[in-house]
Amino acid sequence: MLYQMYESLQATAVPAHGYAVMARQCLEHPFNPWRNSFPGRHLASGLKFIEFMTGPNSKPEFGIDAIEIDGKEHRVVTSVVSHTPFCELRKFSLDLASVNALPQPRLPVLLVAPMSGHHATLLRDTIKRLLTDCDVYVTDWVDARDIPFELGSFGLDSYIAHVRDFLVELHDANGSVHVVAVCQPGPAVLTAVSVLAQANAPQAPASMTLMGSPIDPRRSPTAPNNFARNHSLAWFNHNMICTVPMMFEGAGRRVYPGFLQLAGFINMNPTRHQNAYMKYYQDLVSGNDDAVEAHEFFYSEYNAVMDMPADFYLQTIDRVFHQAAIATGNMTFRHRRIDPAAITRTALLTIEGEKDDISGVGQTEAAQELCTGIPKSKRKHLLKDGVGHYGVFSGRRWREEIAPFLITFMRKHG
To answer: Of 176, 204, 209, 223, whose Cβ has the fewest other Cβ atoms within 10 Å?
Structure first.
């Protein structure tokens, strides 16, 4: 019933949203004499606040139409090159004229987005920076509530199989491929690459980069790590799993709903979000349009969440966090144990942020100790001081410090 209650609350917000929009437009009309008065500005700001808070949180657009390289604008071409019921593999590349004008060959990169609440659009900044040197293929996971029940379940092995199959497909089309995992997919990507290595498959990637990933969540445990370890799988199944109601295409599918995930994100640091919204109101009143736009852009993305398949969520809790299966040598794929030490041809880069409050320091670096078959000359670890979880893959430090290091590493081992 929890899912139905939430949707009922969303439905009641629709009239409030419409009223706030109309009332604000009347107050801000050029002929309204109260428009620039002190009470008029406060009332209009309050209505705008309500309008934003009650608006729909639909999936944002990637919105990557062009990027700038060395002061010149280059058009970006987007296409879907492969798809399953659970994922679209979306390609971002420059148009042919731009490619021919650039001095170095492009690097094909599979960017594996997390299936942990937010849409793949959260990696917009990651994609834009990589596009200066790479053709970027992104796993754009489908909201589980939109996947018909009869199309079957989706567990952790399904996720791993998607990564493996995409690596094979991209290698066959492009030759040497690089794979980058952002946060949650790290264990799945390491498993997929291990599976290819153990099969001695020629499609093993040239390099594998793991960024802020819980390879060994026992190291420097964070609040999310402790929460997962301190609650049983039965508790998660009872309290976090809902059934998609009849109003959606995925009716009957068991999911970890996006609204519960968003509540969890906010509860990790409620004071920060409260202060952000207080400042948003103050900026509305003072007419600080740049700050208002920045807040709305960030929270439109942050509040847009997707439902996660229940099997995938529960198996991830069990195998990645409860068992620490990769770190303890007990990780399996379709009932066969995987061995990261079998990886020999793929270079390894691990990246961590010193202030990461999701995947603590040392959790990602643990992959270095597991991948003993990779020569030391093909292994690197990067720890960035003062960088938090999101700063590892977005923001100024990502663009100016981390991305150049990553691109140089990929070019060296391509």
So the answer is: 223
What is the distance between the alpha carbons of residues 299 and 276, in angstroms, rounded to a whole number? Answer: 10
Instruction: Report yes or no: 6 and 26 within 8 Å, Cβ to Cβ.
Output: no
Pairing outcome for strands 178-182 and 242-243: unpaired
Nearest to 405 by CA among 348, 349, 364, 347: 349
Contact at 8 Å (CB) between 146 and 248?
yes
Residue 407: closest CA among 137, 119, 105: 105
Identify the pLDDT of residue 40: 74
Helices (H), 146-220: 156-174, 186-198
**Cβ-contact 277, 270 below 8 angstroms:** no
Q: What is the DSSP string of 239-270?
A: HH-EE--TTSTTTT-EEE-HHHHHHHHHHHSH
pLDDT of 39-89, one tens digit each?
777 787 887 877 777 777 778 899 999 999 888 899 999 999 999 999 999
How far apart are the C-alpha atoms of 242 and 255, rounded to whole Å?
A: 6
CA atoms within 13 A on the CB side of 339: 9
**Cα separation of 119 and 101, whole Å?**
33
